[in-house]
Design brief:
alpha/beta; 8-stranded parallel barrel; globular; binds 2-phosphoglycolic acid; about 250 residues; TIM Barrel
Amino acid sequence: MEHNRVPMVAGNWKMNGDQDLVNQFSKELKTQALSCAVVICPPSVYLPLFSDHDFSLGAQNVSHLQNGAHTGELSVSMLKEVGADYVIVGHSERRESQQESSKLVAQKAKNAVEGGLTPIVCVGEPLNIREQETVEPYIAEQLKALTELLSVDAMKQCVIAYEPIWAIGTGKTATPQQAQEVHAFIRRTLNAHAEELGEGIRLLYGGSVKADNAKQLFSQPDVDGGLIGGASLKVEDFIAICRAAN
Ligand code: PGA
């Protein structure tokens, strides 16, 4: 099947970084002529500080609500107003620490699409699920919440990131084969939901992607790039990963 999914590398700074890192990324990435799509997701307070940059910006979370009395929350329109085009939803750290359900994650993704932000929807299994060999039903449940709430057209606006929880920040990467198997499963599942739906959707891999393993992961047929945590905090490492996706 022919497809033209331009590879994407997205950096998730998590609760790291400062004005200095904002400046470094704005300056250094400009000179690189990268052919993949690049998205930097800093803490949201830094979004408006990227004044002159040639990559896209994303937030790491968004409220599922529109506006109103929700202390501490940020809406889709606010994030858009300060320069975001993307938003990560359903990162496993939030699913765990904030008890975010797949239903809530789907609501966030739906609002994002409706408000003009591209959601990067994270899915992925914990170690015990991998050990029990029930990865596919686990991921299928996470996807089901999404496909039940979003229209097919809205689904087409999403990016999906497969992030096995046991690989996040642990230095343990999924093997390229493990990543490919799950990515192929995600694509098949989306294709079964609506004809060809999966073919146009970018599937990113995340979990201890580094400059030295990125090429192998990204060369898998169903891996369209990566969502990078730790290695997105050093501009030279991040650039090397982007080059691996070119
Ligand atoms: P990591 O994080 O690259 O540090 O493993 C990935 C992520 O959590 O998105």
